[in-house]
């Protein structure tokens, strides 16, 4: 089985796991809500953001603690 495109890095340089989120580029609140949900309502860092049309793809890493 082969995959198209590249996937998110598994870990940041400081060891935090990364996650890829797809959200509406037209609504910053949508991206914020999805990221916070993935990080159990904790803060997070956006490592990459790619916008194509009305869709944003973010790679995030949850902040510790």
- Radius of gyration of CA atoms, rounded to a whole number: 12 Å
In spatial order, strands of the major sheet run 1-3-2
Overall number of strands: 3
Mean pLDDT over the full residue set: 87
- The end-to-end span amounts to 37 Å
Sheet with most strands: 3 strands, antiparallel
| Strand percentage | 35-45%
Tally the helices. Answer: 1
N-to-C SSE string, H for helix and E for strand: EHEE
- In terms of per-residue confidence, which ranges show pLDDT below 50 for 5 or more consecutive residues? none
Q: Helicity, in percent?
A: 10-25%
Shape category? flat
- Class from helix and strand fractions: alpha+beta
What labels would you give this structure?
single chain, 65 residues, alpha+beta, 3-stranded antiparallel β-sheet, 17% helix, 37% strand, flat
Verbal overview:
By secondary structure, the chain is an alpha+beta fold. The protein has a domain at 18-62. Helix content is 17%, strand content 37%. The protein contains 1 helix and 3 strands, in the order E-H-E-E. It has one helix spanning 28-38; strands at residues 18-24, 44-52, 55-62. A 3-stranded antiparallel β-sheet has the order 1-3-2, covered by helices on one side. A hairpin with a 2-residue loop joins strand 2 (44-52) and strand 3. The longest helix is centred in the middle third of the chain and has 11 residues, at 28-38. The protein is flat, with a radius of gyration of 12 Å. The chain starts with 17 loop residues before the first strand and ends with a strand. The mean pLDDT is 87.
